[in-house]
Design a protein that fits this description.
The N and C termini lie far apart (25 Å). This protein has one domain: Orthogonal Bundle (Arc Repressor Mutant, subunit A). The chain has a 3-stranded antiparallel β-sheet with strand order 1-3-2. It is 62% helix and 14% strand. By secondary structure, the protein is α+β, with helices and mostly antiparallel strands.
Length: 72
Amino acid sequence: MDHEERIVFEYFRKNLSVGEILAVKELKLIHRINDPLRVIDSLIKKNILEKGAGCINLSSSIKELLKKRKER
């Protein structure tokens, strides 16, 4: 995972599910990601994020992994 992917991953780890428009705006303005859609698409291809109806979510498999780590 490159630097921008890690920032986007952490954003969705904290927020879990965010509307696509809001996510792009926040990632650009607050987190200074130059091309958030490119990074989001990359993480979707890696099964880290999932795209829903107008929203982007942390993938179910990643949520499960994080839940198991938290239970330890």
